[in-house]
Amino acid sequence: MIDTVLFIICAIVAVVCGFNLVLQKHPISSALSLIGVMSSLAVLYLLLGAEFIAMTQMIVYGGAVMVLFVFVIMLLNAGSEKASSKSWFAQIAGVPLLLAFVGILAFLIRGVLPPLGTVAFGSWVGGTAEHVGQLLFTTYLLPFEIISVLILIAILGAVVLARKEID
Amino acid sequence: MGHVPLSWYLVLSAILFALGVAGFVYRKSVITVFMSIELMLNSVNLSFVAFSYQLQRIDGQIYSFFVMVVAAAEAAVGLAIILTIFKNRGTLQIDEVDSMKL
Amino acid sequence: MNLWLIPLFPLLGFLLNGLFGRRFPKPLVNLIGIGSVLLSFAYVLFVLSRIWPIDNGYAEHGFTWLQSGFLQVGFDLYVDRLTAVMLLVVTGVGSIIHIYSIGYMAHEGGYYRFFSYLNLFMFFMLVLVLAANLLAVFVGWEGVGLCSYLLVGFYFREGWASNAANKAFIVNRVGDFGFLLGILSSVVVFRTLDFGKMAVAVQGMPVEAGFGTLAVITALLFLGATGKSAQIPLYVWLPDAMAGPTPVSALIHAATMVTAGVYMIARLSFLYNHAPATMEMVATVGVLTAFYAATIGMAQTDIKKVFAYSTVSQLGYMFLGVGIGAYSTGIFHLMTHSFFKALLFLGAGSVIHGLGGEQDLRHMGGLRRAMPITCAALACASFSISGFPGFAGFFSKDAILSAAYTHSPWMFWLGAFTAGMTAFYVFRAFFLAFFGTYRGHQHPHESPLVMTVPLMILAVLSVFGGFINVPGFLSHEYPLAEHENKLAMAISASFGIIGILIAYLMYVARPSLAESAKNTLGGIYTLVYNKYYVDEIYQNTVVKPLEGISRFVLWRGVDETLIDAGIVGGLSRTVRAWGSLFRRIQSGSIRNYATWVLAGSLLVIFVLSLVGGAR
Questions:
Q1: What stretch of H or E contains C17?
Q2: Are residues C482 and C354 in the same domain?
Q3: Is B26's CB within 8 Å of C594's CB?
Q4: Between the CA of residue C143 and those of C149, C173, C260, C492, what are the distances in Å?
Q5: Are residues C496 and C461 in the same domain?
Q6: Residue C594 near chain A (CB below 8 Å)
Q7: Would the pLDDT of C21 be above 90?
């Protein structure tokens, strides 16, 4: 019972924050909305029994990525947006396409997919760090190593790109 | 009241993804566009975890983990690029950065 | 006994002289050029002696050239009595003319080229004569047309020569079109092109009363013959072909190439016998051409043109002969004509050579003192062509006219009257050239031995050649119709003698008579002198419209507008238009790009959901 209520609350929060992200003028407001979305998503992960992922979500996204975003907004002193008429095609065709997109996906999810079950909190306890670690370091070892190299490259790239500013 | 059907999670994921696309298409500041990308990636994560629950396998969460790592790396590099753009063009509006055209 | 050696010798001569002749000294060119033809002649004699008395034909199968479905065509050679006559004429008279050419062409440029072309011509003519199926005949047919073009246009740097060569080739082409249609129809009707097989197949067919399939085939082949053998309506190239050197006129346009049409009809007699309608047409065209050309010949002032129209006229006689079914008489006249016509041309060449290039009869005269041998030889030829009793032409022309007398009297009378005209114009030319006073400014001299000896040989043949009983020889294959008609003989001979006398009167006894005749005839004279303006008519009705269509419709209309601007240009314009349309997508705006990506992915999802997912 309570997981249903929790789901509805978190879903509404996520959607509202998402709308806020799209509709706000100043980037910092959008950044804060994004943090709201991520937090509610973390709760949803917990409801789905994915403890490790929920924690990772909060630490990586909320703790690192969003802080980075806020830093950059502060650094660049990004102001409000100005109107522009260069991308008229996007302005005109965006909403209809998006509505169609959501419509199709909803139809597919409700109609075409085979009947899915329900989510009961606690019915699956296979999402612990131990379980994740076990699979991560055996079957998915190679992608794990590659991901590590990727992070290294990203660090190098970021350092190179942002370096000149220091001179 | 029964438990929450899984399809609601998927619909939520779809809605969040659409919101991310809307942000990408309609917002003019580069940083906001980037944040919309992060929103899209998050929605996909939700979908992965939902299916992982459905199939009672942990592989979905592994994929979600990878997505998160890549998103973090991408955010780092992408923000560095935004800094460079700001340094070269002096503006953060996407529509101003359009010299690669015919 | 390899028949293929007969055409091979001239072919080798052509190759050797053609490829290397530029570096050879003149005697070597002579040796190759004439030696090849003499070798061919010797080999012909050898072959004939081996298969004498040629009761059945001797066939040789060469390689299979064409094998497609039911049609099989090989390079087959065949010798029977008709072939024997033709072979002897071609190689014999050909050798004589080759020897003559040494003297005539001695001071001309391109000496080796001349002999190589002559040899090539001999090769093709021999292929034509020896062929055992229609397609091989066509190879020779086309080949001699090609050589005629090369030789008529020998002085190709002059515009009048290359124009004449073009005219010869193109007019021939029109005839060849008919010939080719005839070949194709033969393939359809007989499913073979071999003469032997066609003869067997046609025996089962009835003799057609009206205009049936066989009549169509034979008429088409005859159209080709009118082109090659210069009959109405395609004779117009022959007088202009006199632009070539005189030995060429003698060999190709008198003795051999132009007789190919007559030979073809004689060879296909088994077809023509079953199509009386066409035969009637052949005879009519022949006799009309004979008369028509003779009228034109009477007014010409160029000695070679007189003889050219004479050739057309005599060919008409040959067609008359084969057209009324008396094939052997046509071939007989072919043989005697090759003797005296070649002699006439070679003699004219001797005169021209002696006068340093003068060809106009009005600038000649009294040459019998300066060129006695030529005069005597030409006298023999003139008597022969006039049908003077005892000479060769008398027997052959008379054979034709006798046959015509019983077949259809109007042809006989027209032919006899034409014989009178023939005698008249030939002796007109003879008297104008050799009698009277010299009206020119050159220093006439007799030609060297190498030219006069061939003249003498041909003179002997022109006088005594009639005693070779060709119709009797050919009676094995072409049964003699009936005996000679004494009355017809007398009538035709007397027409000839009257013609000679009138010519003597007008050009020797009372020369002023010619002038007054020309003035009284006035308009008719101009008409005849200008060849009835046929060339001009052809030019305006056929050539100019074709040129116009070619230039305006095909070139400007189709090629430039439709293909260049329309199809090719249109293609490039379309591509450019689509390109500039699609260029707009790459606007540089990231948001637009994202929207396009969204639209595309939406489409993919939609399509995938329709087909049941990405399975």
A1: helix C5-20
A2: yes
A3: no
A4: 10, 12, 12, 38
A5: yes
A6: yes
A7: no
Token pair 């002749």 is found at C21
**Residues of chain B found within 8 Å of residue A104, distances taken between Cβ atoms:** none
**Chain B residues close to C587, C-beta within 8 Å:** 98, 101
Residues of B in contact with C598 (CB under 8 A): 21, 25
Query: Which residue of B25, B28, B98 is in closest CB contact with C588?
Result: B98
Give the pLDDT of residue C392: 86
What span, in angstroms and rounded, lies between the C-alpha atoms of C544 and C346? Answer: 37
Q: At CA C385, angle to CA C351 and CA C221, rounded to 5?
A: 105
Give the separation between CA A84 and CA A35, rounded to whole angstroms.
28
Which residue of B lies nearest to A43 if distances are taken between CA atoms? B46
C550-563 tens-digit pLDDT? 888 777 777 777 77
Distance between CA B33 and CA B37 in Å, rounded? 6
Mean pLDDT of chain C: 86
Written as one letter, the residue type at B5 is P
Residue C591: list chain B partners with CB under 8 A.
24-26, 28, 94-95
Round to whole Å and give the CA distance between C309 and C330.
Answer: 18
Q: Which of A81, A91, A95, A97 to mutate to test the interface with C (most CBs of C within 10 A)?
A: A97
Q: How many domains is chain C partitioned into structurally?
A: 2
C571 touches chain A (CB under 8 A): no
Is C8 part of a structural domain of the chain? no
Indicate if C389 and C430 belong to the same structural domain: yes
Residue C158 forms part of a structural domain: no
Q: What is the 3-state secondary structure (H, E, C) of C147-209?
A: HHHHHHHHHCCCHHHHHHHHHHHHHHHHHHHHHHHHHHHHHHHHCCCEHHHHHHHHHCCCCCC
CB contact under 8 A, C588 and B24: no
C-alpha to C-alpha distances, A15 to A29, A62, B10, B43, C68, nearest whole angstrom: 15, 17, 13, 11, 81
Asked whether the ipTM of the predicted complex exceeds the cut of 0.85, the reply is yes
Residue C124 falls inside a structural domain: no
Q: Which of A4-8, A11-15, C255-259, C570-574 has the lowest mean pLDDT?
A: C255-259
Q: C390: helix, coil or strand?
A: coil
What is residue C32's three-state secondary structure?
Answer: helix
Query: Among C135, C271, C103, which residue's Cα sits nearest to residue C202?
Result: C271
Query: Based on the domain organization, do C315 and C445 belong to the same domain?
Result: yes
Q: Would you say B92 and B82 are in contact if contact means Cβ atoms under 8 Å apart?
A: yes
pTM: 0.71
Same domain, C488 and C606: no
Q: Tell me if B16 and A135 make a contact (CB, 8 A cut-off).
A: no
Min distance A91 CA to chain C CA atoms (Å) = 9
Query: Taking Cα atoms as reference points, which of C213, C141, C153 lies closest to residue C177?
Result: C141
pLDDT digits (tens, 9 = 90+) for B70-96: 999 999 999 999 988 888 888 888 888
